[in-house]
Design a protein that fits this description.
Elements: H1 7-28, H2 37-50, E1 54-55, E2 67-71, E3 74-76, E4 90-99, E5 102-111, H3 117-134, H4 143-155, E6 160-161, E7 167-169, E8 176-180, E9 197-200, E10 203-205, E11 211-213, E12 220-222, E13 228-230, E14 233-238, E15 241-244, H5 249-255
Antiparallel strand pairs: 1-4, 2-4, 3-12, 4-5, 6-10, 7-8, 7-9, 9-14, 10-13, 11-12, 14-15
Helix pairs in contact: 1-2, 1-5, 3-4
C-alpha cells in the first residue's frame, strides 16, 4: 500500500535526505586512492550523528556498517573493509539516515583518480538515466513508466539493467510500497499518487544484466565481473510533478563540478 505524505512530512523527509546529501559531499572531499572504505564508513557515522541523525543502514536487516561501499564489479550492498581504494576504481557509496522519524536514502558512484573512458561513460549514462526516470515520476504515470525510461536509455547505450534489485517507496520505513524497478513496460504498475515519496536508483552494468551474491550474504556482483554503476535520488510527487528531496550539489561542490541536471526539479532554491 502506497503511503502518501503531507507537505509537512515531506519537509521533514527533505531534512533526512539532505543530511544524506551532505554526508556524500563530505565523503567526496576525502575519497581518493589509498583511503579505505572502512575509514570512510567511520567518518560517515560520526558526521551523521553529529548532525542529529542516526545511520539508517547500521543494523538494518543485520547490515554491519553505516555505508554500503561497492567498488568496480560490485553492484550494491558492499561491506566496508580495510582494502585501500586504488587509482582507476569506481565505487558506489550508498547512505541512509533516520531523522525526524523519517528516512533518507541515496547514492553516488565516485571515480577514484583517473578512470578508463569506457567506465567514465558507464557512470555518465547511468546518472543521466536517473534523471530520465525521475522526469517520468509525474501525475498520470505508473511505476513502469519510470522503469521503462531508464531501461530504454541504458540499453540503447549497450548496458545491462539489473532486474533483481529495485528502488522503493520511502517514509517512516526504509522500504515502503511501491517497488520501483529500472525496467518495465509503459502504462503498467501502480498509479502514482500525490504526496508519495520514492527512491529511484538505476543499477546499471557495463556488460550482462546478470548478478551473483558473495557468501557474506550482502555483496552483489556482476556475473561477468565487469564494472557497475549506481546513482539514487529521493523524490516526492508534489502538485503532480517530481520534486527532488536529495541533491548531488554537495558532491559537486567538493569535486568542483558545475551541473544543471537538477534544474526544474525543485520548487524552491537549494541553499548550500
Amino acid at each position: 500500500m502506497i503511503i502518501p505524505k503531507t507537505r509537512e512530512e515531506i519537509e521533514l523527509m527533505r531534512e533526512s535526505s539532505l543530511l544524506v546529501s551532505k554526508t556524500l559531499g563530505m565523503i567526496a572531499g576525502i575519497i581518493k586512492p589509498g583511503v579505505t572504505t572502512l575509514y570512510l564508513d567511520k567518518l560517515a557515522e560520526e558526521f551523521i550523528r553529529d548532525h542529529g541523525g542516526i545511520p539508517a543502514f547500521l543494523g538494518l536487516y543485520g547490515f554491519p556498517n553505516s555505508l554500503c561501499m561497492s567498488p568496480n564489479a560490485q553492484v550494491v550492498h558492499g561491506i566496508p573493509n580495510h582494502k585501500p581504494l586504488a587509482e582507476g576504481d569506481v565505487i558506489s557509496v550508498d547512505c541512509g539516515v533516520l531523522k525526524n522519524e523519517f528516512y533518507g536514502d541515496h547514492a553516488y558512484s565516485f571515480e577514484i583518480g583517473e578512470v578508463a573512458p569506457d567506465v567514465k561513460k558507464l557512470l555518465q549514462v547511468t546518472k543521466e538515466s536517473l534523471y530520465v526516470g525521475i522526469r517520468q515520476f509525474k501525475a498520470g504515470n505508473r511505476v513502469e513508466d519510470v522503469g521503462n525510461a531508464i531501461q530504454t536509455y541504458c540499453e540503447s547505450n549497450g548496458y545491462g539493467v539489473v532486474r533483481e534489485l529495485v528502488g522503493h517507496g520511502l517514509g517512516r520505513k526504509m522500504h515502503e510500497d511501491p517497488e520501483m524497478p529500472n525496467y518495465g513496460k509503459r502504462g503498467r504498475g501502480k498509479l502514482f499518487v500525490e504526496g508519495m515519496v520514492v527512491a529511484i536508483e538505476p543499477m546499471i552494468n557495463m556488460g550482462t544484466k546478470n548478478i551473483k551474491q558473495l557468501k557474506d550474504g550482502w555483496t552483489i556482483l556482476t556475473a561477468d565481473m565487469k564494472p557497475s554503476a549506481h546513482f539514487e535520488h529521493n523524490v516526492a510527487l508534489i502538485d503532480g510533478k517530481p520534486e527532488l528531496l536529495s541533491t548531488f550539489a554537495y558532491v559537486y561542490e567538493a569535486l568542483g563540478i558545475v551541473s544543471n541536471e537538477e534544474d526544474g526539479l525543485r520548487q524552491k532554491p537549494l541553499v548550500l
